[in-house]
Amino acid sequence: MVNRYLYTIGYEGLSWEEFLKKIKSKRIKVLIDVRAISNSRKRGFSKSELKANLTSVGILYLHLVNLGTPKELRTLLKETGNFRLFAKQYKKRLHEEKEKISEVTLLIMEKDCCLLCFEKDAEYCHRTIIAEEVIEKVHRKLEVVNL
User: Is the pTM of this model over 0.85?
Assistant: First the structure.
């Protein structure tokens, strides 16, 4: 039985307006930025601007840099194109960040949250791996919805 939802979104290919419409349609209260680098060439998606814009519509912004993909893993994925290998290495990293996963889990169980990254396809993004770790902690009482 599902008690809560965890939303995820990648802003690749979305305008700021499309992105905002998607997260507002799900009544997101907290946007959790899981990018290692919170800068973006895309208008509206760099940390300062994103935080200000979300705050203006009543959405809390959190940047959890420790859950971002470190440079060496981004390089590994770029060089090999092997997402399974990347995912295996990233999961090892997440086990080192147990406290952050616990914090995210508690927040998700209290409020409607959305994990943010750039990648459009959640199947090939580390935010899905984070979501899987959270589900494991709450014993599957959570359904992940990719926007």
Answer: yes
Strand, helix or coil for residue 48? helix
**DSSP per residue over 76-105, as a string?**
HHHHH--HHHHHHHHHHHHHHTHHHHHHHH
CA atoms lying within 13 Å on the CB side of residue 126: 25
Range of the domain at 87: 4-146
- C-alpha dist (Å) from residue 9 to 16, 76, 139, 145: 13, 23, 23, 9
Separation CA 144–CA 114 (nearest Å): 10
Q: How many domains does the chain have?
A: 1
The neighbour count for residue 34, using CB atoms within 10 Å, is: 25
Output the domain CATH number for residue 82.
3.40.1010
Full pLDDT tens readout for the chain, 147 residues: 567 899 999 999 999 999 999 999 999 999 999 999 998 989 899 999 999 999 999 999 999 998 999 999 999 999 999 999 999 999 998 888 788 888 888 888 889 999 999 999 999 999 999 999 888 888 767 889 999
Please give the single-letter amino acid code of residue 124.
Answer: Y
